Prior knowledge:
Strand order of the largest sheet: 3-4-2-1-7
Oligomer: single chain
Shape: elongated
Number of helices: 4
Helix content: 40-55%
Order of helices and strands: HHHEEEEHEEE
Strand content: 15-25%
Amino acid sequence: MNKIEILEQLIEEQSKTLANLSASVEKYSSAADMDKDNTLDPEDYSHQGEAREMKIRMEQLLLKETENLETIKRCLSLENKEVAFGALLDLEFKYLFIGVSIHPFLFKEKEVYSISTEAPIFQYLKGKKVNDTIKLGTNSFTIVSIK
């Protein structure tokens, strides 16, 4: 298991998310800043308030996801011997990253999941070591390695 390769792909996935959020912020900015004189339809103008609210929400999401990206980058140099912040677990058929919660993705035919240290499941996983068995939902997994 190459932790750096997996985290680099995680960084790439997170960068895509940031690009999409930035585009959404720009779209809602344009809609929120629509000039009354340039509006073709009065109904367009009436949606400016909604666009401002969505812009604020997207900006907040963008800030949180930017922080997540920085967190992932900090984990590149961490080596772990047990489940803790920054650990990457090999669970036989999947990987589990402990640091931030983002959408799952495939890495060399294996799914990569990630959870935040704020997730309730982290307290259960914290301190587990190689060869320990963990239960996630209805499935049990053996920790093959931790990086």
